[in-house]
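Just curious. Protein, please.
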Amino acid sequence: MTGILSTRPALAVDEATLQAAQQEGSVVFYSSSPSELLDQLAQAFSAKYPGIKAEYYRAGSSQVYERLIAEQDANRVNGDLIHVSDVATITELKDAGRLAPYDSLEYAAYDPQYVDPDKNWFVARGHFLNIAYNPARVAEGEAPQTLRDLAKPEFKAKVGIMDVRLAGGAYTWQYTVWKLYGPEFFAEMAANDPKLFPGHGPINDRIISGELSTGVSLNYMTDEAILEKGAPIKALFPADGAPMIWSPVGIVDKAPHPNAAKVFIDFLASAEGQEIYNSQYSYSMRPDVPTKEGMVPLNEINILETPIDDMIARQREVQEAVRKAWGY
């Protein structure tokens, strides 16, 4: 990683903010991203700014959210930044006044749609829901090509999806199929007896082991398994459109290390930070950061439109339909 960082221009960091950050001495990052990615980000940041130690707490989007809420309500905030794979969650935090705005100079490199208009967050990482399958259990010509195909009788009790009671990536899938096929699809899917999991990692693992034939996974998991490990798994982007999961990050209101948080945001939004994200099979929203070799280029993916405002406005309606279909 050192070689990559050294080829990039200096970050747009305000010197006074940097000096104040070094006096604070540390920054704490709450995130739902994989630990391997968080390790790389923390190590690279601390190496670049030796006076600031980067630490993180890693859990699912719901758990990270709940921890922050509990800390803020108790006036014992430990985290400086929050990073979740759920734009509805980050928007809820913003609307409740739980985030602090910061207009990083690095945001100039981004399309405005990936930066909150009030500068409370930016999309630090994008990835896609895809369809994964085990080639020993599903022939290539018989693999599901669309999200609706997962409800076909031949895949009964052989499909893995995230627990329908969860948020984050689970809700992105729910909203996607609701928008494409209407609420009646949930009854079709529930009748097909899919196996429910608390995250996409267990789904990926069970497809590789052969316990599941197919399921909804994430590109960064399948790309790593295929390109690095040669695992018995294949993946495709749904023909009916691949939903992109935005992973926004923002500074926490009343953060204990507010200046270090700003420097960390600058780092995450910079080309240096985004190259680290992309090294772990993410898709950066910065045009000057290339996709990792072997991955499908962003401009070749049929990205399904998932308007943020509509996703948020429809969340209760969609999730009530899901729970009804599953009897929750």
The first strand starts at residue 26 and ends at 31. The two ends are 46 Å apart (CA to CA). Residues 149 and 155 are 8 Å apart (CA to CA).
